[in-house]
Amino acid sequence: MALSEIAKHNAELADRIANNAGTLRVLTGCLADRDWELRQYACTCLANVAKHNEDLSQKVANADLFTRLINCIKDEKEKVQRQAILCIKEIAGQSIDLARMVSDVGGVTPYVVDYLTTAPGVAKLQAIMTLGFIAGFDHDLAKNVVQCKGHIALVGALKTVTEEHIKAAAAWSLGQIGRHSSELAKELAEQGVLNELLVAFMSTEEKGDLKTKSKRALKSIIQQCQELEALRPLLEIAPEKVLKHIVGQIAIILKNNQAVRRAFAEKGGLKKLQEIKAPPESKLHSSINEIHDLFPPEVTQHYSPEYMNTLLKKIEDYKTQE
User: By the 8 A CB rule, do 210 and 169 touch?
Assistant: First the structure.
């Protein structure tokens, strides 16, 4: 505890501990001690050393501690589990090399996911941040998080936790996964992530962290998404601030894939676009016009509100005549 209190203040003090190989060996050994409070304090101390910079995190990671940290994540005492996750988060967030060391060499990611799935609400935060840090560095690390079902655990947290700052962290971490590629965006879309992020964005009127991070995550995932059927239903409920990104991405998909245009029109996508009242000269208005230009005039006329109203009137007139 004394070493932890010293290390937490700044990098210079933490370096005094990290530069003593004997001290790090003792701390790592404490991770396997029979006294659960000693295991807890050892995790906290190592986290307080690692948190200051990449060099200190590297020294902690080199102390051959990942197997023992995994055992601490599986510990019967929740306080030990939570501090072990904190230590991993502080290491993984410093650099891509350390994130790879945690994920690939240490093999820690599946255990972080398991903890996130079972931990009580407030305790989920450090695990959520850990997955976000790991996934944010590159595609391969994000893919590893998805292969460990981390995206499913994050969606579960977004749905179930009540604390807004934890929901905001889950939204941020999902955005860190989905921003790398269409492949990962598809994985998220198949789990209903876009709908859940949209609900989170619209659930609060005030501009806060949840609203900001949900919007950013939506934008990041939408810009990578190539699944038209994941985007089309959002046209019904998305506000303009998000709608412009959805319609812009739909325009890109339709432009690059002629085969999906007919299905988009037949399933009501084109009709819905024509019902949107977009401000002139706006990005949304420009994207809608861009999509219209991809279809022959007879098709856009067929799905226009004016055409549908005329058709309905003819049907009513016919019924009256009968």
Answer: no
